[in-house]
Design goal:
It is a single chain. With 115 residues, the protein is an alpha+beta fold. Helices cover 46% and strands 14% of the residues. Strands 1-2 form a two-stranded antiparallel ribbon. Strand 1 and strand 2 form a beta hairpin. The protein is globular. The protein has a domain of 80 residues. Helix 1 crosses helix 4 and helix 2 runs antiparallel to helix 3.
Amino acid sequence: MTTQTLEFHDNTPVKETAAFRSYSNYQDSFNDYVRFLNENPRYETALQQGGDSESFIRGIHSAGYATDPSYADKVLQVKQKSRTCNSTRLRMLDVHFEKACHSASLSFSCFLFLS
């Protein structure tokens, strides 16, 4: 799927058109995310964070996962806000993400919204 996105080059936001993967369900998306991280050696240090989701997010960010210089802070803000949210949809996402992480036998806790 191709769409417009905001990427950062030398901390300057630039609108670009980029290709993104598309999935028919959450489970496929999470499975692919876990596979992507496991197959890319640059994320190895982040994957060894042993259940520390903040260090994991900051680790993948510093390894180049996102171009937005505020990416890690934004993800962690969503995590914090989700703790106060009693959403059925959010709980459903948690379950799918947990299954993806378990099926990949990861050595870290990638449950951003579960901790």
